[in-house]
Design goal:
By secondary structure, the chain is α+β, with helices and mostly antiparallel strands. It is about 20% helix and about 20% strand. Among the domains are: about 1-120 and about 345-375 and about 380-409, Severin; about 135-220, Severin (3-Layer(aba) Sandwich), CATH 3.40.20. It has a ten-stranded mixed sheet with strand order 2-1-3-4-5-15-14-13-11-12, covered by helices on one side. A five-stranded mixed sheet has the order 7-6-8-9-10, sandwiched between helices.
């Protein structure tokens, strides 16, 4: 795909040239850079496109949608993410992140968590000032920290909760919670103390089921009108197991997704000149052929968004993939996928990559005339990145290929 920078948003010019995280907030449908001091601070009324550079050649990009963001702003974030991918070389895997239902991969970039604040630019809200402290109740489930209604009915015996008040932070440990969960929540408590209280408030641990007559326990239950037995936790839609969903392949033409009639999913069904949507229920993949235009890729992304809106699946994940850079998870959805696939790399593309590597001080001799890159299957790596030997804190992650490997390709 040949793309001119004139086709891309000016905000993305120079993106990815320096190591580190880059984040843009969507304001009036345009990406506006977020200062480094505000990285990790998200607002519920906003949408963001995030990126990070730590090497060369391969990326992950995430666009995050707050629960109060408008549909138009969310659509703008999706489109701008496609443009950002083009600006970075067109090889990225792109993830749609919904507030409260973020992927483990995305959450692993922000330590120990993200806690979105009320407000936003796109919605016309005013960002909440730090001095306007309101009592907040959070439930902690692994890396997910979710703001829940400040009410006794939100509490249960299975989870761990954080009650954030002006002068004290309470950690309520459900009687059925594990030691590991409690230790993780303590990190979040410390983060809230440092971020929202300048490290100057008290911290208290409240044990569920232990009716000790101490001041902290009495103070905690006082915020809820006094102690009373907690109700049993009711199963929500999030707790219900996801049933099997037969994968459906759709071809996207002129913004319309049409089913592909087939008895089995194979690699041969994917045409390099087209874009496709693979609907797997909770996961919706957008596969973009290398010969497709920027507009066609934007159109395919819009078709995927429309698909989940029309089927009332707002929490489904959308993962966008470029031909030749498919993930192991995507390949696993097919009954047959070749062990080795040739990824066509144009001479123009090689020269651009070579120039990028030279700026980073790497030896690129022989790269410009290298043979097509062969992408071998890789062992499965989960969303947390725990199986990787090296782990980078980023929102777009690039894998570094040294000269010795490039010369063999």
């Amino acid at each position: 795909m040949a793309v001119s920078m004139r086709d891309l948003d000016p905000a993305f010019q120079g993106a990815g040239q320096k190591a580190g995280t880059e984040i843009w907030r969507i304001e009036n449908f345009r990406p506006v850079p977020v200062t480094k001091s505000s990285h990790g601070k998200f607002f519920t009324g906003d949408s963001y496109t995030t990126a990070l550079k730590s090497g060369a050649l391969r990326h992950d990009i995430h666009y995050w949608l707050g629960k109060d963001t408008s549909q138009d702003e969310a659509g703008a974030a999706a489109v701008k993410t496609v443009e950002l991918d083009a600006a970075l070389g067109g090889r990225a895997v792109q993830y749609r992140e919904i507030q409260g239902h973020e992927t483990e991969k995305f959450l692993s970039y922000f330590k120990p968590c993200i806690i979105p604040q009320e407000g936003g630019v796109a919605s016309g809200f005013k960002h909440v000032q730090e001095e306007e402290h309101k009592i907040r109740l959070f439930v902690c489930r692994g890396k997910h920290v979710v703001h829940v209604p400040f009410a006794r009915s939100s509490l249960n015996h299975d989870d761990i909760f954080i009650l954030d008040t002006k002068s004290k932070i309470f950690q309520f440990n459900g009687s059925n919670s594990s030691i590991q969960e409690r230790a993780k929540t303590l990190e979040v408590v410390q983060y809230i103390k440092d971020t929202y209280h300048d490290g100057k408030c008290e911290v208290a641990a409240i044990e569920d089921g232990k009716l000790m007559a101490d001041a902290d326990t009495g103070e905690f239950w006082g915020f809820f009108g006094g102690f009373a037995p907690l109700p049993r936790k009711t199963a929500s839609d999030e707790d219900k197991p996801v049933g099997s969903y037969p994968a459906k392949l759709l071809s996207v033409e002129k913004g319309q997704a049409k089913p592909v009639e087939t008895d089995s999913l194979t690699r041969e069904l994917l045409d390099t000149n087209k874009c496709y949507v693979l609907d797997c229920g909770f996961e919706v993949f957008v596969w973009m052929g290398r010969n497709t235009s920027l507009d066609e890729r934007k159109s395919a992304s819009g078709a995927a968004e429309e698909l989940i809106r029309g089927s009332d699946r707002p929490k489904s994940q959308i993962i966008r993939i470029i031909e030749g850079f498919e993930t192991v998870l995507f390949k696993s959805k097919f009954e047959f996928w070749p062990q080795t696939t040739n990824v066509a790399v144009t001479e123009d593309g090689r020269s651009k990559v070579a120039a990028l590597l030279r700026r980073q001080g790497l030896n690129v001799k022989g790269l410009a005339k290298a043979a097509p890159v062969k992408e071998e299957p890789q062992p499965y790596i989960d969303c947390t990145g725990n199986l990787q030997k090296k782990r980078y804190l980023m929102v777009v992650r690039l894998k570094i290929y040294c000269h010795s490997k490039l010369s063999k390709s």
